[in-house]
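User: I'll paste a sequence; please echo it back and then give the predicted structure.

Assistant: Echoing your sequence first, then the prediction.
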Amino acid sequence: MRLVRVFYSGPRILRLAIPVTLFGWILLSGYLVLYAGPPLAVGILLLIPILVLVWVASASARGVSWEADLIGYSFRRGDRLSQLVRWQDVKALLVAGTHRSSTASMAIVDTAGKTRVKLVTSYALGLDDIRILYEASAYYLRDFGVYGKNNLGWHPSLPTSGTHAAIGERPRILPYVAESLFVAGLSISVTGSLYGGLAAPASFGVGLIGIALAIFAVNKLRLRKPGVRTDDGQR
């Protein structure tokens, strides 16, 4: 009985954007520290985004995986096991979804009635990814007298290959860009205010916040247009 594994390491654009953003923020922070001599509080504020970006880059490099084998269901961050649910402790395996909207949710409930696993289609996991995990889990659970239930016509089976790259839903880039600009603008504005009210850093931060709000507005108007797909998969 082989291991069935769905692996996700983030979109390629994110793996490129994080190092570029990190490099740009380090240059900006270095300039302010070397030529403006900010107080300690400002230096700490400048350091926080660098630490966050390094952590995100490290997490993206390791990736995450959802697995099903003869023992049970497991979730891993890189090589570290974060969750394990043994089949002998499972009472029910459920999936609900619709083909039309390409959305689905999968739940694993233990013998105590507690939902141990809840997977929902997202930018990381797509409908096909959840199908692979459900069918493999249902296949192994049959030996324990548990039969999965779903309304999508899926049947217990093992895929032809063990490891699959998660497809996920197509991510919308604009909201992530807007969120990044908003957080960066807010950090720069606070930094400028703490550093004696310098106009340049504070105004630059306010400008980034304005651009972020404009992108949010444009994206919201775009989603309202006919034929543009929303988060629930409807048009």
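Residues 165 and 187 are 36 Å apart (CA to CA). Helices lie at 12-36, 40-62, 127-141, 173-194, 199-224.
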